[in-house]
Design brief:
Oligomer: heterodimer
Strand content of chain A: 25-35%
Structural class of chain A: alpha+beta
Shape of chain B: globular
Largest interface: A-B, 173 and 196 residues
Strand order of the largest sheet of chain B: 8-1-2-10-13-12-11-9
Largest sheet of chain A: 7 strands, mixed, barrel
Order of helices and strands of chain A: EEEEEEEEHEEHEEEHHH
Helix content of chain B: 25-40%
Radius of gyration of chain A: 27 Å
Distance between the termini of chain A: 44 Å
Distance between the termini of chain B: 42 Å
Number of helices of chain A: 5
Largest sheet of chain B: 8 strands, mixed
Chain lengths: 258, 349
Amino acid sequence: MTARAMWKGIIRFGAVRVPVKLYSAIEDQDVHFRLLHRQDRTPVRQVMVNPETDRVVAFADTRRGYLTRTGDVVMLDEDDREALQPQAGRDIEVLDFLPPSAIDHRWYARPYYLGPDDANDDYFALITALEESDRVGLARWVMRKREYVGALRLHQGYPMLVALRHAEEVVPLDTLEPPDGPRLDRKELSMARQLISMLEAPFEPQSYHDEQRARILDLIETKRRGGRVKIVPMRRTQASTNVSEALQASLEQERRHA
Amino acid sequence: MPEEKADQACPDPRPFWSGSIAFGLINLPVSLYAAYRRHRVALRMVDEDGTLLRRRYYCPHDEQELTAAEIIRGYAVAEETFVMVEDEELDAVAPEQAREIDLRRFVPAADIDPMYFERAYFLTPGEGAVKAYRLLAQSMQYEQRAGIATVVMRGTAHLIAIIAEHGILRAETLRFHDELRSPEDIGLPALEQGERARVQAFRKSIRSRSRKTLPRRLLADRYDAAMRERIDYKLRHDEDVIHAPTESAEAEDARDDDEIDLMQVLRDSLQQKETATGQGRSGGDGHEKSRAASGRKHDGDGKRNQASLERLTKSELYRRARKLDVSGRSSMTKAELAKAISGTTDKRH
């Protein structure tokens, strides 16, 4: 099976130019629902309404505005918004190269595979060069009227662009104060660390499955055949009151299992 | 149930999810808050006169406007044939143990490929859980490990990694393996070594552009900045501005929609003190301290009547409610906040 490319671009830095095709690395597996009118099981219609007159405004006639604190509305028509859009182009400009650990997990938003466009020589040279230098590129490109900044990195030996979030979005950790309290007990800390070591494992993403998807499809099948489902509300759990004892017991339990 | 998509100006200050972490036999109640700020200028849908539009739902049969209670999710089993599913049922199909975060595996934090990462949430300790929270955060940080678990939150299963950094726990939702395509799925060509001379030239270029840390400024949202500039320009030149009649309903609306800074709610939840129901020695002290602190702050505030409070923005009211330790403040409307604050001040004088 060959996937369809969603966009074509050219990776550039210095004299380097590598033409590539972008492919989404994500495959939607969600169970999708429609919104229905409960009474007659018909999909609902969404409309925009002027709440003062109850008049329905067709989507094509809606406009966009910014509401100020004082209740004024600044109108921004389509021309205004288009003028602000980034210039379309084919360049995927690599601005910097960083050690892989320089980008915290919270920045990563969406991965795209890169495949070769036309010649393969530069594509393979780029892969080998990225591999040997152990660096991640920080690239900027404009795709479908949006500007992206992404990480250029390898996954299973193949290049990817992982779109990153905007700086304004990611909360710097040093602006938050961690929960505070009296100094933690050294014995308890060491027991907690011991428990973590006992539960050490490699990351094996293949071993986790979305069982809920199957449960939801089962639920739908049951209901289709006229069955009912019992609803068990989640009971609220209490925090453990004696951490020391709980840790001790956990360690003993793990030792027995080992 | 239908979620507002058109106007996202007012994010929900309640946690995304509340539940508990099982670490060995320790039970640690937590709440999850989005680790992101909503930063983009919110453009509203308006009509040609600048009136804010509202989204409404209609039944196409009788053109009747529908309330949230009259709307239900449906799954299409055949054309035009739907099975209706209640939100509670989606949660209920998961066994109870699937609805808590059971930390059974700790993996090297650096081993998780970034393509798995979806969204991040900060964890805040639930009642009486501050000590267990700190203990888990510190130990995980020492060990450089991330805890992996699957959990059903709001009816959907998530694979999550619990990561400790800066003394704060966060949950990163990961994509399930089968939600990601492999290079073979895409049909990428078999890998080959790059030609040597070319590789050397590329590496030289990479070296000359290397730096150590992520430059945040390169990740600035330039579209959003341009949008703000354009809006400011129009306001300064009074161009395309539709003025609100003084004290109109709209102006009221605008203030009521004024968002509570989610970060404020998050900071607040991270700093809650260990309570008497919590852990032994430290519990009582922390509680005493927080009472004393709020008492002191509040004396300076003096008496206020509700009418003058209502002139304040929602986030200012929230800030005050927090100082006064008003319970349930994060889910209150602006009016409720004002009422609660004036109630507290009256009582204490």
